[in-house]
Amino acid sequence: MLIGAVPPVMVKSASNPDGIPIEVFDGLRKQLVDNRSQFYVDFPTGPFYGFNRPNAKPVTGIIQNWWRQGMMGGAKAHYDCIKAFSETDFTEDLKLIEVPTLVMHGDDDQIVPIANSALLSDKLLKRSSLKVYKGFPHGMCTTQADVVNPDLLAFIQS
Q1: Over the stretch 125-138, which tens digit does the pLDDT of each residue have?
Q2: Buried b (16+ CB within 10 A) or exposed e, 96-134
Q3: Whole-angstrom Cα distance, residue 70 to residue 62?
Q4: Distance of alpha carbon 63 from alpha carbon 48, whole angstroms
Q5: Fewest C-beta atoms under 10 Å: which of 18, 59, 105, 130?
């Protein structure tokens, strides 16, 4: 299963002209270095769970838990992770996967835009099943677990 996943590749390059400019990821690294603790408040408060959308109702417990998890991790590992998730090209890896693969993605994912990820992964995988969730954010496994979990279970049982 790929859930809100980054493949095939996120960063803009000659081979991925529709990707996200490296400056976006440089900005994330800068925010992390400048004030790591605040970064782990701002990211879930805004785009990760879609709490920055009109009529969204931020959930304090979810935001605080995201902060807690972020602060428990290593600062260097998190910094390096930004490079790994943004610049690693998984195109050839996706082509090698031969088992049935469920690709789940929210169409309002502000972190990993669906057009640059799930829609492309679906075409590269040999036995893909694409499930798009209208209006769901990147953090849909938390905010819409009541919808996502039954779909996961149904796929596993199939």
Answers
A1: 999 999 999 999 99
A2: ebeeebbbbbbebbebbbbebbbebbbebbeebebbebe
A3: 12
A4: 10
A5: 18
